[in-house]
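It is worth pausing here to work through a concrete case rather than discussing structure prediction in the abstract. The textbook approach is simple: state the sequence, then state the predicted structure, then interpret. We follow exactly that order.
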Amino acid sequence: MRLGLLLTLVVSPLAGQSVRSRLEARVPTAAVPTVDSLVQVAAREGLPTEPLVQKALEGGAKHVPAARIGAAAQEMLEQLRDARALLVRAGDAPPATAAEVTTIYAALKRGVPAPVVERVVAAMPQEPRGSALHAVADLAAHRFDPDSSAGLIIDAARQGLRGERLLDVSTAVLHELQRGHSHAEAVAVASPRGGAAAAAVTLRYTLKLLSFATAPCRGRDAPVRPRVSTVKRAKVARAIPLEEHAHDSSHAHHAGVARRPGDRRGAAALADAGPDAGG
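Step two, the predicted structure:
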């Protein structure tokens, strides 16, 4: 007990000195005591301290007056407290880690509504939510409904997608939006469930076109139908989405899709997650 107290007394001044040394000559002198004090308060409350230091350094780099730097650091401390309180409301058992508090703070700063953040946190208990919240924030920044965006990402997570795979889903939706689809169409095409269903429809439609184009003409007066070369047929086959049927991921291994590196779709990301990822 006495050893722990002694270490606390020794380490705290050293930590404070480290913060002050980082701020000196990079932040207005008048702001250093204020920021240093707020950092110590955050440390005592178990909140992340690095965001406060970075905020002050950013203000110094932009030649912001000392009073505004102190006010910004104080505001950030309150926002970090709010982020931790949100984690508790969503069901996280305390103490909240600095990384999770920072993740929630960043999502709120990007404009994701607090109830939506709570929904994502509650849907993914006891695991990192950084990628999920980043994906939701990306969609919300492109005028997708935040609550619907959260539903899409949560659905993907329930099918087994994690980390960068969740970012692949949001990226696929944004790609479809850039191709001219409406917001609703982009979600339907690129979502793990909607994308698989769309893949099955596209496959049937493509095979029907191939059948029509390659059917032999009957009778001398029959209209001439264009024939499709083997090369063209191969190109069409490569354009078929990865999954043939939404209910059977085993077809994904036979679709023969040549994907460019980094070019992912929601359905493709689901297939990569393995046969157990399906909902």
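Step three, interpretation. Residues 1-16, 196-214, 219-279 have pLDDT under 50 and may be disordered. Residues 114-215+227-279 form one domain.
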